């Protein structure tokens, strides 16, 4: 059982310090994203961009660094397979406007 005893000197304080920095940075960034999502929902931010902002906030809160990439790729594949449901680009024009008219 003495082999499993962990001494305080076995911990690397620098890695703990880095972990706390990352944790604090993720809290700050996710709080900012929540503010931006709330503000954007009342403004002119597209639903697609709001979704990606929410996914990034979730990824930061859960420290899941791959989540944003996975969701972004899935949305790109989805829009490629469904041209009728493709995400409108943010060009400042409404979907009902015909740029050729």
Quick synopsis:
The protein has 101 residues and is mainly alpha-helical. 60% of the residues lie in helices and 0% in strands.
Describe this structure in words.
The structure is a single chain. The chain is mostly helical. The chain has one domain (13-83). It contains three helices and no strands. The protein has helices at 13-42, 47-62, 67-81. Helix 1 packs antiparallel against helix 2 (47-62) and helix 2 (47-62) runs antiparallel to helix 3. The longest helix has 30 residues, at 13-42. It is elongated, with a radius of gyration of 21 Å. It starts with 12 loop residues before the first helix and ends in a 20-residue tail after the last helix.
Topology at a glance:
Elements: H1 13-42, H2 47-62, H3 67-81
User: Would you list the SSEs in sequence order as H and E?
Assistant: HHH
Tell me the span between the first and last alpha carbons: 81 Å
Kindly provide the radius of gyration, computed on alpha-carbon positions and rounded to a whole number of angstroms: 21 Å
> How would you name the oligomeric state of the polypeptide chains in this document?
single chain
List its salient traits.
disordered C terminus; elongated; 101 residues; single chain; mainly alpha
């Amino acid at each position: 059982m003495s082999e499993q005893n962990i001494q305080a000197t076995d911990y690397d304080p620098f890695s703990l310090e880095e972990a706390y920095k990352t944790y604090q940075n993720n809290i700050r960034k996710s709080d900012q994203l929540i503010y931006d999502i709330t503000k954007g929902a009342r403004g002119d931010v597209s639903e697609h961009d709001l979704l990606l902002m929410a996914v990034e906030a979730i990824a930061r809160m859960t420290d899941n660094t791959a989540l944003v990439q996975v969701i972004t790729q899935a949305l790109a594949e989805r829009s490629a397979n469904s041209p009728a449901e493709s995400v409108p680009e943010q060009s400042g024009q409404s979907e009902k406007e015909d740029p050729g008219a």
